[in-house]
Amino acid sequence: MHYDLIIIGMGLSGLMAAKTAVEAGKKVLIIGKGLGCLTLFSNTIDVLGIPLLAGPETTRLRDGLSQWIYDHPEHPYGKVGVEKIEEALSSFNSLFPPPYTFQSRNETNSLIPTGVGTFRPTYLIPSTMMRGIALKEKKTLLIGFKGYKDFYSQRLADSFECRGATLSLPESPSTEITATALARWMEQPSFREFIGTEVKKQIRDEELIGVPAVLGVNDPMGVRKDLEKKIGASVFEIPILPPSIPGMRIFNRFKERLIRRGVTFLIGHPVSKVTLNEKRCEGIEIAHPPVTTSYSADHYILATGRFMGGGLEADRERILEPIFNLPVFQPGSQEDWFGRFFFDKHPIHRMGILTDSSLHPIDERGKPILENVWVAGTILAGHHYLDEKSREGIEIATGYWSAKKAMEG
Amino acid sequence: MKLQTEILIIGGGATGAGILRDLSLRGIPSLLIEKGDFLSGASGRNHGLFHSGGRYVVSDPEAARECIAENRILRKIAPHCIEETDGFFVSLPEDGPDFRDRFIQACKDANVPAHLLSRDEALSLEPGLTPTLLSAVKVPDGAIDPFELVLSNAKDAETYGGKFLLHTGVTSLLMEENKVKTVLAKDLLHGEEYQIEASHIINATGAWADEFLKLAGLRVAMALSKGSMLITNQRLTHRVINRCRPPSDGDIIVPNHTVSILGTTSVRLEDAENFEVTPQEVSRLIRETSRMIPAIEEARFIRAYAGIRPLFQSEEKGDDRAISRGFVLIDHGKKDGIKNLITITGGKLVTYRLMAEKTSDLLCQKMGIHAPCSTHLKPLPGAGKLSGLKDRLKTLGKSETLCDCELVRKEEVEEVLKEGKLKNLQDILHRTRLAKGTCQGGFCVYRLLGILNESGLAEGDSNNILKGFLEERWKGIRPILWGSAVKEEELMEGIYKGLFNL
Amino acid sequence: MHNSWPKTNSDVCIRCATCMAVCPVSRVTPLFPGPKHAGPGAERFRKPGDPSVDKWIDLCIGCHLCDLVCPSGVSISEMNLIAKAKYLDEKGRPFRDWLLTHSYLFGQLGSFSSSVLNRLFQNGVVKWFVESILGIDRRRELPAYQSSTFRQWFKSHPSKGQRKIAYFYGCYINTNEVEVGKATVQVLEANGFEVFLPPQECCGIPMLGNGDFNGARKMALKNVPSLLQAIQSGSDIIFSSTSCGHMIKHEYSHLLNIPGSEEVAKHTFDLFEYLRNLLESGNLNSRFKKLPIKAAYFAPCHLRSLGIGLPALEILRLIPGLQIDNIEADCCGLGGTFGFKKEKYEISQEIGKDLKEAIDRLTPEIVLTDCEGCRMQIRHLTGLKVLHPIQILRDALLQGIDKEVGR
Ligand SMILES: Cc1cc2nc3c(=O)[nH]c(=O)nc-3n(C[C@H](O)[C@H](O)[C@H](O)COP(=O)(O)OP(=O)(O)OC[C@H]3O[C@@H](n4cnc5c(N)ncnc54)[C@H](O)[C@@H]3O)c2cc1C
Ligand code: SF4
Ligand code: SF4
Q1: Mode of pairing for the β-strands spanning A2-8 and A291-302
Q2: Domain end residue (candidates: B247, B278, B302)
């Protein structure tokens, strides 16, 4: 089969690239070996959570970004530019019309409460989490569920200096319940009725009710509204350990829209081979033993993420990019990859694929390697997405930009 | 606070705990103090090989005889601490048959049952072995769970009146011409100070023996040797695999619960507190052990760790392994004129009971009382605990599982918490299999802290404890970060640094 | 034979729990611990000599969804299947499982028995017997057998075309949904193919799904030589049931190690995948008439794990007037014979509920899906008319031919 564009990688960057291309009328194939980090970590959209931008009522993101790019021209953001980053973010936003939207507060970062009792600076916040920002100012009650082992309201309440309560669930005697099962229950009115009544019993003078981010996959705002009606207070979600239900909402929305638009989705099988001819990629093969299937396209985008996604692989000596075997920018040997302490800024995080300003992969001397291949997402070199709190921002911006560039090229 | 006891034991490793139990069974009032938790020393950081004696038959037949005798006793008194796996001594082409033949003869002499298996027999039992092996000799090796062993000893001792203070270190000794008059100790977590008076003091501080004796102005000639080990994510074999050659680096693979432990190395050290596993050791261990089991080259590792052995200088120098691993029992009354001080150190986990028996015998003799040892007859408590892998697997889906990797149930943890006396996170981790599996506590410690808080047991800021744990965890993980372990680490960093912004 | 089981790769699991987010079974019941625990997690606790204690393993529906989303490429469902086989081998299988997995035998009795069987299955006493003695849930309608089999119809149907193509139709089409078989033949003929039916038996997936490797192997050993012969005669093989197709294309070689199965796999295609290839090469007959219908399409699990995208959806979109939406749901919950078992009926229904809700959101007139199990379940759940997409394609292609479709 032949396509205009083949995207390898089904994380946020690949999905953004697919969206951008299909909206321009291109015939698109997107391939994922598995679901990437989206369904594990993503709740809100982090763009740049550096100290300059960390708190509320500080610098506007736009200004912070400009300064950042000025200081770090080699950062992936430097290749996309402030204007296009904003364009990319609003393209992302267009997938989420009300009621479940992603918004910033006054175009600055906000601090949202997390499942470990800390605050995290983040930029675009889903409607179900927005009210969490007010946790510090308003009286809050945190609700956990017995048998759900990834959220401890009491412990969080201690950190946030508010109150916590744990509800016993009607149908789970001693066994445990997973986030996905909880999310599914939340979508049932009878369960909400139960939760509503129980929370009401616990509530004293609190105005805000914080719950783990499990308010259903399909209609979180509907779930929230109904709960609020029953409880009589505002409800917000708190990000928790993986898997991420809000991440699934994002993935599902993309998938639904892209399939409707005619994007071909192939999930579950790895790209086993690429055919290169001089400086062009001519086709790829997907292995599904015992058969392999070939696909070709005019353009290719590599958006396979870092180690978890399989974009990068580490053996005992080296780090490689397994699909195109692109050179990976890396300092030294295994000993040098990580710092002595867990909370160090590890050199391995800066490793990745070097590109030129249009996201073409380049070699050590800066020469483009493949003319019809672009690289997007966290696999790119030159960022510390964890410390910068820039994961989703980099994915959205470079996913968008790589597709734009691919369509030009 | 002033404390008084008949016997004061310093050190809560296998030896100290074994002595506490032995004396308590004999009805002699005893107190044990330990600067950390039980098992903070070598007892919590060893290879977990339940020796048959095979490893020493050629180099140190005396130690081998002790091992096999104790091996037989422990099977009876501590079945819940032991997995009777059997062990192979595998000969590779480069090892040749000579050493093997000497080995078989030496086993016979030392009364260690040994049975020669052909290459095919060995391979059919352990398909992971290299197909190039020449032969294997089967001996009654096994795997021992030191945590279970030491804690069962402590528990039984308590039942018979034995007492202990954990997280309490000796700070100095007040001497009176020919004896130790008072031992000054301090609770290292809460700062409480103790003045302890005892008729006799037993130094069971393992690798710290010399350091402790310095407090009394005494010395014992010993050296420290670091041994490093690697833990795989899964069991590679279901028997202990030894290399049939003179003891050297990387020649033992021990299955232990869900994992296998590869070891060891031997590196001289000056300091018993600060040490880590070096990349060179990691490479050497993988290179050597993969000669016996080629899949090790590709295997997933989940942790590296090291322990310190005390070594005693004997006449001949040379390789540390040539120095006897038998134990040392010193009556400082005879040796140095300090009549109420005894040192017991060296030995093996497997011989801890024998060491305790000999120490207690010496004490009784010095005290002039007749109280026979019964530890070789009386089983340790706890034999009914979940031990087999399938017993754990059976619990899956039946109750709330805190640790998904090692299948540790919430009730199990609550049980441990109920017993009380736990002072920090590591104490809990020592008493359960939490944080010992694939993710090394990445998920379950988060949950544990939640539960501690809910049951009102949390002390201090949970996030500081969590951070401390992640740093501790990091020490074991950093040396093995490649392949799937790097992915796993990205997941953990994604959670704690990214999502949770710790 | 068990030596030939593929080596499991549980070592690469990083405990990320992505698989837990998609497993349809652990979402609805705490009785099943979910893919992360049941697969790579439990694998660390299994020792060769130990008896199986995986009581819950039988609850894995075998949908493969976990495999598809795992970022580390762990073959979770395969691990589960092997564990299930061990568990059931040790514990023994109820006669009910044998019956369910050998329903193809009824088909072989020929059409005369269909009316007897159908009447029997409706009978209250028989239903009681079926439930309490056999353990098949009585709320589940047993499939209705048709009076004339597909094979019988085909015998009297002279197929003509420029190129020959072999059709693996599967048991269910033969005895219960003859219309799907007819539509397949008609569409292929309309594209210039002469269809022939290589000798074939049940593909064996019902046995495999119940961990009966030997039973499945027996079937495969009969089918592979016959399919190879068709290939050697120069034709490709197409299948209209994604379950049979997945079995033949992937499990025959990978799990069952059947000699010749790799060659078969290379020449075996999903019906719509084949049509999409025709489209790509400009050879698809796409003179479709207008079909003003509001339809919803559901991608069966086995289609997803074929890894070919959603070719039926792509082709159906070419039909003018047809408004077709993809149903955003994971698994129908029937899981082959799973949902027939009394102890699993509730679970199967719970999973189905999510699918039903997703369908309700789209308010379609009809539902289309490539797998007979999904069709059965969706009818049971929604009462809507449910067809194989080929039936709609046939209607769009051939005016007036056989307007009465399916059930
Ligand atoms: C790398 C390695 C591998 C090994 N493998 C095996 C094996 O496979 N099988 C086997 O049988 N044996 C093995 N051993 C030997 C075995 O681990 C030891 O012989 C045994 O654990 C010694 O126990 P112990 O109680 O004497 O010493 P330790 O366990 O070291 O206990 C001494 C305790 O004293 C405490 N302490 C020290 N100073 C003070 C103080 N001032 N105040 C209070 N407390 C103090 C320490 O905190 C420590 O807990 C191995 C040893 C090493 C190092
Ligand atoms: S195959 Fe399906 S039912 Fe079985 S574990 Fe995987 S996702 Fe769950
Ligand atoms: S998705 Fe894969 S890697 Fe993640 S927990 Fe499941 S099996 Fe393990």
Answers
A1: parallel
A2: B302
d(CA C79, CA C5) in angstroms, rounded, equals: 10
Q: Which residue of C has its CA nearest to B491?
A: C16
Work out how many domains chain A is built from and give that number: 2
Pairing of strands C323-326, C294-298: parallel
pLDDT band at C136 (very low <50, low <70, confident <90, very high): confident
Kindly state the tokens that stand for A5: 């564009």
Q: Are A48 and A393 in contact (CB under 8 A)?
A: yes
Residue B427 has pLDDT above 80, yes or no: yes
This prediction has a pTM of: 0.94
Distance CA A352, CA A216 (A): 36
The preferred substitution site among B20, B34, B167 for testing ligand 1, maximizing ligand atoms within 8 Å of CB, is B34
- In chain C, positions 285-314, which contact chain A (CB-CB < 8 Å)? 304-310, 313-314
Domain boundary among the residues A211, A238, A265 is at A238
- In the CATH scheme, what is the code of domain C288-398? 3.40.50.10700
Domain ranges of chain C: 8-91, 95-134, 150-279, 288-398
**End-of-domain residue from the set A238, A261, A290:** A238
Overall domain count for chain B? 2
CA distances from A45 to A41, A246, B217, B264 (A): 10, 11, 64, 47
The candidate with the shortest Cα–Cα distance to C271, out of C377, C332, C193, is C193
Q: In chain C, what is the straight-line distance between the N-terminal and C-terminal CA atoms, in Å?
A: 42
Band of residue C405 on the pLDDT scale cut at 50, 70, 90: very low
Same domain, A134 and A263: no
Complex ipTM, two decimals?
0.96
Residues with Cβ within 8 Å of residue B6, at least 6 apart in sequence: B28, B29, B30, B198, B199, B200
Same domain, B138 and B269: yes
The boundaries of the domain holding residue B434 are 395-499
For C150-279, CATH number? 1.20.1050
Mean pLDDT, residues B351-357 taken together? 97
Which residues lie with the beta carbon below 6 Å from any ligand 2 atom?
C 23-25, 35, 38, 60-66, 76-77, 80
